[in-house]
Amino acid sequence: MLRLSHSVKRRVPLYKASGNRLLVSAREKVDRRNAPRFETPAVLEFEDGSRFHGVSFGAKKSTAGEVVFTTGMVGYPEALTDASFKGQILNMTFPMIGNYGVPCTKTLDKYGLNKNIESDRIHAAGMIVQDYSNHHSHWNAAQSLSEWLESEGIPGIAGLDTRAITKKIRSTGAMAGRIIVEGSDTPDFVDPNETNLAALVSTKEVKMFGEGNPLKILAVDCGIKYNIIRSLCARGAEVKLVPWNHDISSEIGWYDGLFISNGPGDPAIMEETTKQLAKAMALQGDDVKPIFGICLGNQLLGRAAGATTYKLPFGNRGQNQPVNNLKTGQSYITAQNHGYALDGKTLPSEWDELFVNANDGTNEGIIHKSKPYFTAQFHPEHCGGPTDTEFLFDTFLDAVRAKEKGPITSLVQRPIIARPQVKKVLVLGSGGLSIGQAGEFDYSGSQAIKALKEENIETILINPNIASVQTNIDRSSEAQASNVYYLPVNPDFVEQVIKRERPDGILISMGGQTALNCGVELHEKGILQKYGVQVMGTQIDVINATEDREIFNQKLAEINEHVAQSEAVESVDEAVRAAYEIGFPVMIRSAFALGGLGSGICEDEAELRRMAQKAFAGSPQILVERSMKGWKEVEYEVVRDAAGNCITVCNMENFDPLGIHTGDSIVIAPSQTLSNREYHMLRETALKVVRHLGIVGECNIQYALNPYSEEYCIIEVNARLSRSSALASKATGYPLAFVAAKLALGINLPELKNSVTKSTTACFEPSLDYCVAKIPRWDLSKFENVSTEIGSSMKSVGEVMSIARNFEEAIQKALRMVEPAIEGFEPRFDELPHDELVKALGKPTDRRIYQIAQALKSGQLTIDEVHEITKIDTWFLSRLQGIADCDVNLTGKSLDAVTAPELIEAKKLGFSDRQLGRMFGCLDDDVRVKRKSLDIVPSVKQIDTLAAEYPAQTNYLYMTYNGSEHDVPAQDANNGVMVLGSGAYRIGSSVEFDWCAVSCIRTLRKLGYRAVMLNYNPETVSTDYDECDQLYFEELSKERVMDVNDREAVQGVVVSVGGQIPNNLALPLHKAGVKILGTHPTMIDSAEDRYKFSMLMDEAGVPQPAWKELTSMQEARDFADRVGYPCLVRPSYVLSGAAMNVAYTHEDLENVLGQAVAVSSDHPVVITKFIQGAKELELDAVAKDGKVIAAAIS
Length: 1194
What we know:
The chain has 35 helices and 50 strands. The chain is of the alpha/beta class. Strand 31 (632-640) and strand 32 (646-654) form a beta hairpin.
């Protein structure tokens, strides 16, 4: 039979691809990243004796201090130069650090302050990172992080499990530790808090900033950050900076307002400052002047007022700390860095607590009842961090300007928010799946229904998609609507349902563009007003403002926000005129369109006329705008409630530059190459835009960011749940659709709990300590005469999402998830000559990532050359080069010769056992045996939304080799059942298999079995962590299923509800000793293997067309000549008839046989006589022990 016959096989075997034949013999280790290597051993040792081994970067010296962690995902230059970290060894929870290098640390601004850092030197004693980026990429970088640390004499240690360290600090409290670098002296443990640290970092002399400004501010320097001074000066203040123990009373005649800065250490030590502040606050009459304190300033003012302070177990340090104003109910996301707190309960009666931390309830600020004194424990000056509370500087200086003597009132006025009164809500679904609108809306709709039912709202659903989970007839589920109408989502049918059901409200943001457009039309026709139905969440005028390109641009112009030069037009001729005014090339975008339909980049008039004509066929309006092709594309998922509380849940960076629809782009979360300024600049803009538009619920905002400056343009805002929303939700663990539905009911963010931790607030911004990679799946090969180029109009039919602790592991996992036949980041398809490769890389197609693999692995192109062609950031390409180099270095070695460190490095880079087996010339099972004998196994980690800062009661898990401990214990043998999901949606395998998987796990749980779900599709309901007992967002591969099986000790695995991918694993898993529940794997094999199936039918006496297994091309021709054309070629173990084709001639036969072998290279291909004009019937049945107990014919 035909299996691997090279006479018809088209794909180049992996072991022969891309120059490997030249590189296999190389025995010298190649390293083509042109980046420094760090190999000096170092150890992080805690005072309790625990040790973490890594490598040294930065200064080659040892250090000691208090080990603390910070959850900020950007802003390491700002953090290191924050004096509040004096004497502390800083553990960065975000795993990859150094990505964007370090800007010039000598550049000064107009006030004479260092522009890019927060003080004149690094104050942290040391730095701990998991993965130090030895290649940095940023237009503003002047040096690498390691070079900067070395120049300042600060050591760093990399290669540690920073999540494990964070959990240790979280459970035991901040403790003394030391970084010991090989070859240097070992320092003693120290407790820096026993020292007056503020005295060490405070200015020694009086300094003036913003001289000549009208408002005179005396700033007591306890470790002040430069951006505090800058924020005061920019608002009209002349700042006199004085030492921590300066005689404040001597300045009473000079200053208009008093400011007390942030700083390090224990406030109880600073008795001199406290006494000075007590005198200042005791002043009466005209001597009363506004006082504002930040961070340590809050604690010092509190102590001066008579309150006490205490040491926090591990402090609050990061950029996502939620703070509630107790007077107004408003919530803010803040940057914080403190190890001590003020005890609000000990405040005297003339003071009130103003702010509290929404997570742990600690004090975050106080306010005087009758005098203009107030404080913030957090950092309104940000840097690094969010800018939400920068207005506090305005509050302070407005009081100074007004010579305020009484209390600050602007911070205590509570807004009145009316909550909509509804009892019954109609939810519009998305209808049938299409390109650009798939299973993500089944997920969002199911979440919304769950949220509404939790609030005792009767829920009506309209959705004709019978394969979706939300239309399930299982009434016992909390995610099922009260009534489901299988009707088209259009105004006529929706009106009939409204007339019958009489709902109070309608939710149109959970059903994609279909539901949104329908809702707009219902409004415009007056149907909603006629029946008294109110739109829940974002209102119709807001939706129109985001969908109508002209109105959208006008709205953004009102707040001086950046959009590309553009013009909305309604005819082809108008489009041509606009294009000439703007200048070619231009981008056109359709209004009210799905998945970028009707959009594209036009290089000239002819191309514009052609594309515009197509666009107008589906939209009444298009936008002609300046092309920014080659810029970075960045997205933020934003949530806002009716009270104006606003958060960004996730930011994402496209691997591919602008010009490719985000749905067709590889996307990385969070962003990897944005600096703190860029990250928070775009975040601040997102909040500003969403508030101005008046969005209530969730929305997606997309940017183009110039890769050589801070110039940006807003591309679009989607005022609804989208595919990006589903990705962001699964990437962070934040249930976006669920929360958005609650907000639509008028519930505000601070009222909601974080569903992962069960204890902290939902009004927060997730901090990730991992990397997520999303890769689209295209099925373009299933269409004839369809271009494989990808651009601004989406063509993908599904997507996958991987989770790992570095980019390399994430990208390799994701590539395998897209298609089981893909092994990872390595060449695929025919090898291209140099010129053809360059040309191919210049025009993005669904094969480009594999062409990059060929270029980097073979050495045909360098990192910089690939960047010049593709404009993909060199940070990503350098990481990919590391994967290719590891492949080259290990290929050709024998398994016995491979060392444990080499094997560990390969696994950390994301190589699977199958890849390693190919490289070592052995079976993947052999690799598994070897690595397990060396105790090289993946760690199980939780997705907890808070980077391990707080304990999480979550079952949302992933596996990584970049870890040293498990977050959850291994299970003893139990009654659990592992259910394998469907993987990526594709043509022939879609949401119907998610329905099957969800139905399975719900039934298992009802029957009392522990349900373990394994899937990697972010658009699915099955990957909601509350649907099962344990969720592994992981690969559907033999290797990973066995890894999970080793940890979970389930009684068996269900492969029958996830479609073809799990089915194909049945026999390999069975042979590896995993118990398959249901149909026996050998029987599954008999059905999937075309040769065995045909033999079985003959033995059973079941009539079938003439058939033959193939052994050669000649036998295939002979068979066709004998039975006559047409003939049907049937490969084994394939999905939805992939490569199953009818041949009418010998030429057809040779072509389709090649396709069949390519998709079924390890299994038989059978050829049969094709019966023309026959009727096709299907029988679906449920059977037990070989007997049918229920069946249906269609």
